[in-house]
Design a protein that fits this description.
This protein has three domains: 74 residues, Arc Repressor Mutant, subunit A, CATH 1.10.10.10; 101 residues, 3-Layer(aba) Sandwich (D-Maltodextrin-Binding Protein, domain 2), CATH 3.40.190.10; 93 residues, Periplasmic binding protein-like II (D-Maltodextrin-Binding Protein, domain 2). The protein contains ten helices and twelve strands. A hairpin with a 2-residue loop joins strand 1 and strand 2. The longest helix is centred in the first third of the chain and has 20 residues. The protein is α/β, with parallel strands linked by helices and 307 residues long. Helix 1 crosses helix 4 and helix 5 packs across helix 10.
Length: 307
């Protein structure tokens, strides 16, 4: 099949002006060009369309039947082209009916979920949130399955955009009536107590073990779990320390009798962010969602991660 020869779309505004004005001089004034330039454009249009378009009638010109037929579709085509080339209009989020799919871990859902869902209910009653759990994240899912990834971001492909969120610190939590709850948590005592750690892949080694090894210490991991909230509730029924994100720890400790304790090690914060596909980068409703997530994250100060 041969290549399709597209018409010169720059002719469309001139054709619209000629059909509206019914004269070369009027069209030239409308387009802010000289009459001679418009006359040359009319010549080109006649060759392209195979019709004279404007013909003499007394002292002026008149539209041919073909030109009269062209007026409605040309007006519509020009209006459509202008609309397509305008920036996206501001959206009234209160009128949007849409379902957004977010992917994150349980800690982010606990920490960001309440302010985010409250804002949706207050500002965007037609919006629904589908929150999916983390798994084996593939950034390619952002092209069609997922609207927003929230958490520790992998290396992202060129067609995915991202925005940082407040970083994450880790803390230790224990039940309020644990025998060691009121003791000073020295690094030696920290290493001696059994630990519950959060890891999706069941790993028994992390930066915590590296920092302890530098001091000639080692710890015993009692169990690993994939969920921050699960780790907190396991600590509630044992004498172990659960190592979780500071924000989720604070939220859970408001509900159940847990004590939040600072880890006596220089651990690096965990960088967090959100990622989305470039196809929705300028979408007004998606921008509103990203701003809502960022506001929820900054309002909590610290967000979530894995230990």
């Amino acid at each position: 099949m041969g290549r399709v020869q597209l018409p010169d779309m720059n002719l469309l505004p001139a054709l619209d002006a000629l059909l509206r004005e019914g004269s070369v001089t009027g069209a030239a004034a409308r387009m802010n060009v000289s009459a001679s330039a418009m006359s040359r454009t009319l010549g080109r249009l006649r060759r392209v369309l195979g019709d004279p378009l404007l013909v003499p009638a007394g002292r002026g010109l008149t539209l041919t039947p073909r030109a009269r037929e062209l007026r409605p579709p040309v007006e519509a085509a020009l209006a459509g082209a202008l609309a397509a080339l305008r920036p996206s209009p501001e959206v009234d989020i209160a009128t949007v009916e849409r379902r957004f799919t977010l992917r994150t871990n349980d800690a982010s859902a606990v920490v960001l979920g309440p302010p985010l869902t409250a804002r949706v209910a207050r500002e965007a009653p037609g919006v629904q949130l589908r929150i999916l759990p983390e798994g084996d994240e593939d950034p390619a899912d952002l092209r069609d399955r997922v609207d927003l990834d929230i958490g520790q971001l992998p290396e992202l492909p060129h067609d995915v955009r991202s925005r940082p969120l407040p970083s994450q610190d880790h803390v230790a939590v224990c039940r309020a009536d644990a025998p060691h709850a009121a003791e000073e948590l020295t690094v030696e005592r920290f290493a001696a107590l059994p630990h519950i750690t959060v890891t999706r892949r069941g790993l028994f080694h992390s930066v915590v073990d590296e920092r302890l090894a530098e001091l000639g210490l080692a710890r015993r991991i009692l169990t690993t779990v994939p969920s921050h909230v699960t780790a907190c509730f396991l600590a509630l029924r044992s004498d172990a320390l659960a190592l979780v994100g500071s924000a989720v720890a604070a939220h859970v400790a408001e509900t159940v009798p847990l004590v939040v304790r600072e880890i006596p090690l220089p651990l690096p914060p965990v960088a967090l962010g959100m990622a989305w596909h470039v196809r929705v980068d300028t979408d007004p409703a998606h921008r509103w969602l990203r701003d809502a997530v960022a506001d929820a994250a900054s309002g909590t100060g610290r967000s979530t991660g894995h230990s």
